[in-house]
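Course assignment 3, question 2. Fill in each field.
Student: A.L.
Task: Predict the tertiary structure for the chain below.
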Amino acid sequence: MSAVKFAVAVVLSAPLLAPVWAADAGQIVVTGEASRDIAPDEARLTARIDKRAADPQAAAQLAAKAMTVLLAKLEKLGVAAASIQALGTQVGPLREWDQDARKQRLLGYQAVRELRLDHLPLSLLGPIMQTLAESGVEQVGSPQLDLADRTGVELAVLMAAAKDAEQKAQALAKSLGVGVGRPVAIDANPGAGPSPGPVAFKAMRAEAADVGQSYSHAGLIEIHAQVRVAFAIQ
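Answer field:
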């Protein structure tokens, strides 16, 4: 089965040196490129607990109990405490329009608690999704697949792009019988647009989740870098 690749741009919007791209007879201007395909090794996702009751305190207690039970299950799965962020409870009234009375009618109260899970190993993502579904969590966000060492990978690819620019300049200079001096201007990813965020694998609600799904073959992320460099001609 062919691997799926997701393109992710490395964006460094500020130039490393003030670029001077006007035509200059004393310069060689080249663009270096590099890319690396790498499998995602971590994920993050959000889940929401939504409980309802006749009064606000009861709704909040139901949400708190559901969160406590869920956190215990996640801990049992081996999810690190540092990866779990349980946000506070939001409580509000539930109303509907009473057509006969021509006014809003109070139905009860709703308590919502959000759970954020970060830096999850992909090996745990399937069991976590199954646990969320079995725990009656009302909504689960799309797992966001990413790289644990994204910054390190991006810098390595950027350095490879810079090396590619240098090699191109050397080849051009050799063919023209001149030498290559020091770089006088460098621009990382010229003209690149905003970088997309971590890859969204699949949107799903808890009740519709494929709880048996494996994320061990989630595809590849392509990290791409582009560097434009002006070298002095010797």
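Instructor remarks: The chain has three helices and ten strands. The CA atoms of residues 32 and 165 lie 4 Å apart.
Grade: pending
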